Amino acid sequence: MTLELIDDGRETAWLRPSESGHDSAEATLWLGPAGFEAYARVLQLPDPAFDRQPEAELADEVLDGAPSDVELVTGIVDVLGSSSDDLRLLLWDGYPYRPPLPAASRFDLAGLRQYVLAAGSVGDWARWVADAAEPHGRAFPPAFVWPSDRVWCVAFDVDAHFAGVGGSEEAVTRLLDAEGLTAVRAPRESTPPLYG
Q1: What's the domain range around 75?
Q2: Residue 24: predicted pLDDT
Q3: In a domain, 22, yes or no
Q4: Confidence class of residue 181 from pLDDT cuts 50, 70 and 90?
């Protein structure tokens, strides 16, 4: 199977914030849509020591030891499992993909970013993004990933040092216990710590 770009945005409607306002939109970008039983943040970097700490203050070994975007997303999807061969992915059109994202319909999810919808497995995405990576090799993560049965959702915003995950209590507990991933519970109503 290959990653298939989809022009029909109806599959994204469930992600849209149910409340208006900037806080609701940001919570969706950081942790996914409202309505899940539990939420977690899976850290790519340790949380900052203080709010808006410059990421440049982190030691080189911390930055060098961080999982890549591809490793983080595939690790999360592997733990969550279920119907991971039938995924929907939203790709942010602000990343400098090479070649650029094709002319498919753009979807505005939270009034802050534009996305292209795709379908496939996490392996399809990993192969596609390897081909679309920028010249120095960074493969950009999907902004959102969810299975067709919508039992969980991964949100990986461009400005975050973590991927947010919404799902059942059991799914979040699996993430918290997973080897190779650093996960913490995340109340959806509070602002996560962020680098500046």
Answers
A1: 4-185
A2: 86
A3: yes
A4: very high
